Amino acid sequence: MIVKPQHARLDSLSLDCGASLAQVDVVYETYGALNASRSNAILLLHALSGDAHVAGISEETGKPGWWDNSVGPGKAFDTEKYFMICSNVLGGCRGTTGPASVNPATGAPYAMSFPVITIPDMVRLQKKLIDHLGVERLLAVAGGSMGGMQALEWAVAYPESVVAAIPIATTARHSAQQIAFNEVGRQAIMADPDWNEGNYYGGKPPGRGLSVARMVGHITYMSDESMREKFGRRLREKDRYGFDFSVDFEVESYLRYRGAQFVERFDANAYLYITKALDYFDLANGRGSLAEVLGKTVARFLVISFTSDWLYPTYQSLEIVNALRSRNRDVAYCELTSNYGHDAFLVDIGEQTEILRGFLANTYREKC
Amino acid sequence: MLKMSALIQTREHPFVREILGRSDFAIIGGLVEPNTKVLDLGCGDGELLEWLAGNKTVEGRGIEISSARVQRAIRRGVSAYQGDIDQGLADYPDLAFDYVILSQTLQETRHPLGVLKEMLRVGRHAIVTFPNFGHWSVRLAHLFSGRAPKTRLFPHSWYDSPNIHFLTVKDFEELVRQENWTVERKIFLSGHHLGRLLPNLMAEVAVFLVRP
């Protein structure tokens, strides 16, 4: 399945910070076909470093999508049955308007003049896209990590438009620890002299800072077990220590490689903006208690967490689930066993696939 | 009392054939009014809730401790929550359900009285089924072996049994009186047969429909 991105230009978007964007570009991909009653659309929501290319082979890069193991014919999100939509988030760097985009008012990239955006802002833009595509109700909104936060926000902000919400490995509010890791990443970027207060477009990007940010992030996506299994204390192409600060261990080599690879495809300012949106995320903020907020939703929920995910631990999923149960909302919840840490929702998908398939099929049969 | 024809009809359903040996499922199907909200504690693979949803248009929720069983329940479309019955009810508001079902699990809970009270807080009715420790086979097994009884109903050895509280029909009825609850229906089963005679001695499984 070769996929190519599509583009929509949407009119003004008002933001939580008080500012508004005069025009917004959205880049998205779709898979499968919308049925005649328009009742089989699923919005997939990507995580921090993800993008709209969720499945199939990208016409542009030749690479498979980030959830290609879960989206396609006969997979958890079955493209034979459902119409899938995934868009790049607001503030990102894959075509949807973000700090690297040209500000139409100045003709220059926004850089740090881009307004600080939030998860609700991202969702508001997605709603505009869905309206633009002529879809009134989504069979499901689904995503892991930041995608899960968007799924929660969708269910709260547009209760009538969401039949089922599937937040995976996520939280209703960022914790001090989660904010702390993001702050380390941001400080690494801003400490890189090439960052230049965000004005590096057309010049040398702050690759060292962004790479360190990504290395920190990667550690939080894995688990002690998965790192022990994958690297242990193995040395990289040597039999003994080098007694210098070149690469000794496999794990160092892996992190450096991942960091360097990330710099090729991600914009440092976008990393600042998106991590800030994550840190600001508190579903209940200004809306009452979490139970009150989730009590107003009408969607059916499927919440999934993973045993070894210490970045978005099970207790955070249980906060969501218990708030829903306290208001007698329809919620299914399961903690899956995995050694893969936070990355489990992307890589350790055996059991998750079966649950998603059954849950979606039942929801489609019962509610659409 | 439940009509035998209704029971037989229910048992012809493929689902009920599959759960032969769980005759209380068929009985519960007969106690639950259609179009109600049901919470099933220890819902296992969600078989009962799926059947109630399909046959009685019941809106069901389940609580189950085992991740593998919760996964199978969710796969069949049941809204199951992975959690512990002893604590898992606390989050539900008062009278959230029409029926709260505890099928063959009361004897496995750590705080049976606490669980029963919670069931009658979150539900208008409680349906409780349990294996009767007063059944003659249990009494005989204990009398003649001089050991913890092992029978068809209680097949486990003392060291690996999930059952931690043993109760008889008489015990349960006494608790109901003590707590001032009302028994709305009671059904006693031996094998797959209904029986009314000397239930404390003859019933293998007891089913009680109770309200506060």
Q: Care to give the gist of this entry?
A:
The complex is a heterodimer of chains A (368) and B (212). With 368 residues, chain A is an alpha/beta fold. Chain A has helices at residues 119-132, 146-157, 176-191, 207-221, 224-230, 250-265, 268-280, 290-295, 314-326, 344-347, 350-367, and strands at 2-3, 6-10, 13-14, 20-21, 24-31, 41-45, 57-58, 71-72, 77-78, 83-87, 138-144, 162-168, 300-306, 331-336.
Largest sheet of chain A: 8 strands, mixed
- Give the number of helices of chain A: 11
**Structural class by sheet pairing and helices of chain A:** alpha/beta
Question: What is the CATH topology of chain B?
Answer: Rossmann fold
* Multimerization status: heterodimer
The 3D shape of chain A can be described as globular
What number is the mean pLDDT of chain B? Answer: 87
Q: What is the radius of gyration of chain A?
A: 20 Å
Number of strands of chain A: 14
Topology:
The complex is a heterodimer of chains A (368) and B (212).
Chain A: E1 2-3, E2 6-10, E3 13-14, E4 20-21, E5 24-31, E6 41-45, E7 57-58, E8 71-72, E9 77-78, E10 83-87, H1 119-132, E11 138-144, H2 146-157, E12 162-168, H3 176-191, H4 207-221, H5 224-230, H6 250-265, H7 268-280, H8 290-295, E13 300-306, H9 314-326, E14 331-336, H10 344-347, H11 350-367
Parallel strand pairs in A: 1-7, 6-10, 6-11, 8-9, 11-12, 12-13, 13-14
Antiparallel strand pairs in A: 2-5, 3-4, 5-10
Helix pairs in contact in A: 1-2, 3-4, 3-7, 4-6
Chain B: H1 4-12, H2 14-18, H3 23-31, E1 37-41, H4 47-56, E2 59-64, H5 67-75, E3 79-82, H6 85-88, E4 97-103, H7 112-122, E5 123-131, H8 136-145, H9 169-178, E6 182-190, E7 193-194, H10 199-202, E8 205-211
Parallel strand pairs in B: 1-2, 1-4, 2-3, 4-5
Antiparallel strand pairs in B: 5-8, 6-7, 6-8
Helix pairs in contact in B: 1-3
